[in-house]
């Protein structure tokens, strides 16, 4: 594992040589990582307190993949010479923090890099965002996460006092309600759970396309990853509180789906749909059964690719039309028919239609939730239905109708943009044929 971490460390100074250079080396690192690992449920590539099991393996692949595509999507930063070298350094530093978080087998190192990953993300939002309100979005992001993170540090020291170790495999069952809430609340914020999700739409709207891609694609998954890693520790507490959190998450997913129906900003709609999907993931994890864990992993990977692709599309439209408003983005089918195809495929994948990964994940999540309680079926029907409704709303409003007469100049797609969208869609729709790889729990 250390060879990949040092690879990234030494790539950071080289990021000042330019975008293309870094992107090629990231794809090379991804290839090396894939061929040097195997899909198993126990940690491999052990070195010091780092190792990779099947779950973190997928999360690391997703992180490197989305980070590579961030460079491709952020071509405008390179073109305008908008501090592009510092930008590529921040992206690599963020990727380094994410890989350290996902590969750590030590709870304290996990916590440190969980927090440090906020810093480059906030700097990307504040430095390369769109409106002056991006400063407030950065403050929201930091405040929400840090407010719940300091209690987590207190919880970690209580655990250390009890077990004399921070290693995941040495932590046994610990039934303290205080420590349960101290540690788990930060993961609920990160996923985010309904009622503590307000930072996410703000951050997405103000972030540049790269910030939105990594935020939706990978950073939200840190919450789910932390919950699954610490499930064994709070097994007794989970039996007591999980019903409450599952009902809250599903109710939240339903309400957020309704909120999506009257959004006029495309980015806000995609951001709220992320909250809705991650509510399902959270409730699937909390059912504590095998199909819930597997479904949540598949849904995390599928959602990471799908929402990242949708943010790319929103940015492609924004670069041409300088607006993300639904009333402006009309009749795009007659102007950009090729992008409309990608918009359709992404929207359909977002509403969990076959053959996307989202469908497989949703089927497994529904199975686990209905086996937990058949009363949840009513919520799941509503969430599934309204998810389809807002995805159809997103596609039909932006692509059909009479196009806005204020358009005066636009250019058709670049090969770079088609490749970018294809590299989101291809794994999203074809990994489903290799779904046995997700058998890692």
TrEMBL record:
All residue ranges annotated as the NADH:quinone oxidoreductase/Mrp antiporter transmembrane domain in the record: 104-385
Residue stretches making up the NADH:ubiquinone oxidoreductase chain 4 N-terminal domain: 1-101
Leader peptide range in chain numbering: none
Membrane topology (UniProt): Multi-pass membrane protein
Cell compartments where the protein resides: Mitochondrion membrane
Listed GO biological process terms: ATP synthesis coupled electron transport; electron transport coupled proton transport
Family to which this protein belongs: Belongs to the complex I subunit 4 family.
Chain's role: Core subunit of the mitochondrial membrane respiratory chain NADH dehydrogenase (Complex I) that is believed to belong to the minimal assembly required for catalysis. Complex I functions in the transfer of electrons from NADH to the respiratory chain. The immediate electron acceptor for the enzyme is believed to be ubiquinone.
Annotated protein name in UniProt: NADH-ubiquinone oxidoreductase chain 4
Protein species of origin: Cassida sp. EMHAU-15090501
Taxonomic lineage of the native organism: Eukaryota, Metazoa, Ecdysozoa, Arthropoda, Hexapoda
């Amino acid at each position: 594992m250390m060879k990949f971490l040092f690879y990234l460390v030494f790539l950071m100074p080289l990021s000042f040589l330019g975008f293309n250079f870094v992107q090629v080396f990231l794809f090379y690192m991804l290839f090396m990582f894939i061929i040097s690992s195997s899909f198993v449920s126990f940690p491999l590539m052990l070195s010091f307190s780092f190792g990779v099991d099947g779950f973190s393996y997928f999360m690391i692949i997703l992180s490197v993949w989305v980070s590579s595509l961030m460079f491709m999507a952020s071509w405008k930063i390179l073109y305008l010479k908008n501090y592009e070298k510092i930008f590529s350094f921040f992206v690599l530093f963020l990727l380094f923090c994410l890989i350290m978080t996902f590969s750590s087998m030590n709870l304290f190192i996990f916590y440190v890099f969980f927090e440090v990953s906020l810093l480059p993300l906030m700097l990307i939002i504040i430095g390369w965002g769109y409106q002056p309100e991006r400063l407030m979005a950065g403050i929201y992001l930091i405040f929400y996460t840090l407010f719940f993170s300091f209690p987590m540090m207190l919880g970690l020291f209580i655990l250390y006092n009890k077990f004399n170790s921070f290693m995941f495999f040495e932590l046994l069952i610990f039934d303290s309600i205080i420590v349960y809430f101290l540690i788990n609340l930060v993961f609920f914020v990160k996923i985010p759970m309904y009622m503590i999700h307000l930072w996410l739409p703000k951050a997405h709207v103000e972030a540049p396309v790269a910030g939105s891609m990594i935020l939706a694609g990978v950073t939200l998954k840190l919450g789910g990853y932390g919950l699954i890693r610490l499930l064994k520790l709070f097994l007794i507490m989970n039996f007591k509180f999980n019903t409450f959190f599952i009902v809250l998450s599903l109710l939240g997913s339903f309400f957020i789906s309704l909120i999506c129906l009257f959004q006029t900003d495309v980015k806000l709609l995609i951001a709220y749909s992320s909250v809705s999907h991650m509510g399902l993931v959270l409730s699937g994890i909390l059912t504590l059964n095998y199909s819930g864990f597997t479904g949540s992993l598949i849904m995390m990977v599928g959602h990471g690719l799908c929402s990242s692709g949708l943010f790319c599309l929103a940015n492609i439209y924004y670069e041409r039309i300088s607006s993300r408003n639904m009333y402006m983005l009309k009749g795009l089918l007659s102007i950009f028919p090729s992008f409309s195809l990608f918009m359709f495929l992404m929207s359909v994948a977002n509403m969990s239609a076959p053959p996307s990964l989202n469908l497989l994940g949703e089927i497994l999540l529904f199975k686990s939730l209905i086996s937990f309680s058949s009363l949840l079926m009513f919520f799941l029907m509503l969430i599934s239905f309204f998810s389809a409704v807002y995805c159809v709303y997103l596609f039909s409003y932006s692509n059909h109708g009479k196009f806005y007469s204020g358009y005066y100049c636009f250019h058709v797609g670049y090969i770079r943009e088609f490749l970018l969208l294809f590299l989101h869609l291809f794994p999203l729709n074809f990994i489903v044929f290799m779904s046995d790889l997700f058998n890692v729990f």
